[in-house]
Amino acid sequence: MDEKLLEIEDLCVEFPTEKGKIRPVDRVSLEIRTGTITGLVGESGCGKSMTARAVMNLIKKPGKMTGGRILLEGRDLGQMGAKERRLLQGREISMIFQDPMSSLNPVMKAGKQVDEVIRLHEGTDAGEARRRTIEMFAAVGIPDPERRYDAYPHELSGGLRQRVMIAMAMICKPKLLIADEPTTALDVTVEAQILELMEKLREGGTSILLISHNLGVIARMCEDVYVMYAGKIVEHAEIGTLFADPAHPYTKGLLRAVTSLQEETALLETIPGNVPQLYELPQGCRFSNRCAFATERCRADEPALRDLGGRECACFLEDRA
Ligand SMILES: Nc1ncnc2c1ncn2[C@@H]1O[C@H](COP(=O)(O)OP(=O)(O)O)[C@@H](O)[C@H]1O
Ligand code: SF4
Ligand SMILES: [Mg+2]
Predict the structure, then answer these.
(1) Model pTM greater than 0.85?
(2) Which CATH superfamily, name and number, covers 4-92+174-319?
(3) Which of 19, 124, 129, 219 has a Cα-to-Cα distance from 42 of 20 to 30 A?
């Protein structure tokens, strides 16, 4: 299948700050083909969550989407009325957030919150909704699901809350699931369970945008991968190409880090320095202050994302051969 489910075109998100206007998402374009899992990878602070929030129309003020379009099956989400867009969310697009508390209602029982999603979108009766919720709780690895159905979010551990939210996002089998670091807070056994569940959802027709700082998880799940750095997409390729022959020095650094068990430490060793603050980006290529291949040209001009035949990459290295 080669149809496009989601198209993000030239997306910009801006925030006014004391130090001036910043652009955590800067002309980002990204496509998700129907029935595929697409990865979005990059270190913390690169703009991955902000990109996802823009799709969900959940950019927190004073930030806002200042440019670009987001299309779902060709329908421009920005042109929809508020009611239409709300309905679409939950039924056609749902999201697993990095922070579970931001999407759970603290004064409502966990099970009821998942029930509500089913009843709202499918008109199912209460008994059937409860049965399906408990079944889903079990599927996402919640022990003793009947008891947990009646628990309030604050009575659950962080890992359990994360699983309740995953259950809520998956229950209606959306067309698009955005999973933002879905397993970061979970141990490896539960992580494997959740990833397996996402794979099953995909087989059932759901397309997934999987956001992670962990290329290992991305490699296991995705067909197509976008690498993001300081608000920009710097490389895009099929997973096989990206792993066998990464083109961008940033991607190369991320890949070197994957092989280490202590990923965070490895990242610092393989890519020295940090993601720059957005109000003090280096001139030219945003990666130039950390890149071993940087030249004067890199410090003066910003490389555009270019099609290199089978991949896209934003780096001047390709011109030097
Ligand atoms: N409320 C905010 N105001 C200003 N800047 C913000 C705000 N929230 C996030 N940012 C900045 O936006 C950038 C991208 O953040 P985010 O999308 O959360 O990154 P990621 O998900 O890749 O870790 C970061 O540099 C962060 O500092
Ligand atoms: S453009 Fe230059 S500084 Fe930027 S990643 Fe490529 S080689 Fe490094
Ligand atoms: Mg994030």
Answers:
(1) yes
(2) P-loop containing nucleotide triphosphate hydrolases (3.40.50.300)
(3) 19
